[in-house]
Amino acid sequence: MSASDSATEPLDPTARGRLETWLEGVLGAGRVRLRTVARLSGGAIQDNLGLELEVEGGPRAGRHALVLRRDAPSTVAVSRPRLEEYALLIAAQRAGVPVPEPWCACADPAVLGGPFYLMARVAGEARGARLVKDPAVLARSEDLVAELGRALARIHALRPPLHDLPFLVPPSDPLAARIAELRGHLDALGEPQPVLEWGLRLLERVRPGSGELCLVHGDFRTGNLMLRDGRLVAVLDWEFACLSDPLEDLGWMLAKCWRFGAVERECGGLGPREPFLAAYEAASGRRVDRRAVRFFELLATLRWAVVALLQAERHTSGRERSLELALTAHIVPRLEADVLDYAALLEGEGA
After folding, report:
1. pLDDT tens for residues 282-332?
2. How deeply is 344 buried, as exposed, middle or buried, from its count of CB atoms within 10 A (0-12, 13-18, 19+)?
3. Which residue pairs from 32-40 have beta carbons closer than 8 angstroms and sit at least 24 positions apart in sequence?
4. Would you give the distance in Å from CA 190 to the centre of its chain?
C-alpha cells in the first residue's frame, strides 16, 4: 500500500490524542506518539490509514509502521464488520497463512467513532495493473502461482466447527446460498439485469460443487495479494471470508475479470492455471474437478458484477459521493460479455 495525497487530515488532533491514549493502555506503554497519519490508496470498501508509531516502554517499544483499518463512510452489505475481519486475520495467521501481523482491535466508538483494528504494514506491491507487468513476477510466474495454490490450501484447511470464529454460520447449501444472496441484491437494486439473472439460473440448473465446506477467503485474487520480488508476502482484505465450497476461491482467482488485461495468464494475470491447481491439490489433498472450476469462474464473474452495481449504488444513493464508486458500474457490460463467453465455453464442454 502506498500513501495517497489527501486534502483533509485523516485524523484531527483530538482523535489522534484519543488513539494515542487508547494504544498506551492496550500496549502497556509509557507513551505512544503518532508521528504520521496518512490515508492509503486501495481499499474501495474500507478506509485504510497508514500510521508511523513511536512507542516508549512496554513489549512493543520502538518505531513501527502500521495500518489502521476502519469502515468507510458507506459500505456494502456483503462486507464483514471490522472486528470479525480482525478475528479472521488471527485465525489465518495461526493456520500458517502469510498475513500482516494483527496488533489489536477496538470496539469502543468513543475512540474513533466506530470499530477499527491495527496490523503491521507490509512492504510490497498489491496493485494488479502493476503486478501483471512486473519483471520479477513474469520471471517466476509458475513458481509464484504454485505458491498461491499452497497458501489457499492453508486457508481451506480450516474447516467447521471453528470455535474462534463463532460468527461464521455453515450454510446447508453453499451454492444455493450464494445465488440467493446475489439475486437478493439484484432485486433490492430494482433495475432489471437479464444477463446476470440468466447466468444465475444456469448455475442453478447445473449445480456444480465439491460437496465440501471450509473457510474461504472470498476475495483471493490479484489485487489482494501483496507480492515482493515475485513472491507472496501477505494475503490481504479478509472482509468477505465465509464458510463455503473451496471451489469458490479457486474460481475467483482464475476468473477472467481478475487478470488485469493479461488474459492469457489465467491465474490472476500472474501465470498459468495448471501449476496453481496442481500445487493446491498437492497441499490440500483434494482432487480439483477442472470443469467444476469453470462454473465457479462464471459464479465469480456474476458476483463481481453484482458487487460493482452495489458499489455504484453507494454513490448514486448519495451515501458516499465518489467518482471511483460511480465509475465501477461501467465494468458491468464487460462482465456481462464474460458471462456469455463462459456459458458458451461450458456449453462446448458439454454443460
Report:
1. 999 999 999 999 999 999 999 999 988 988 777 666 666 666 666 677 899
2. exposed
3. 32/56, 35/63, 37/9, 37/10, 37/11, 38/3, 38/4, 38/6, 38/10, 39/3, 39/4, 39/6, 39/10, 40/1, 40/2, 40/3, 40/4, 40/67
4. 26
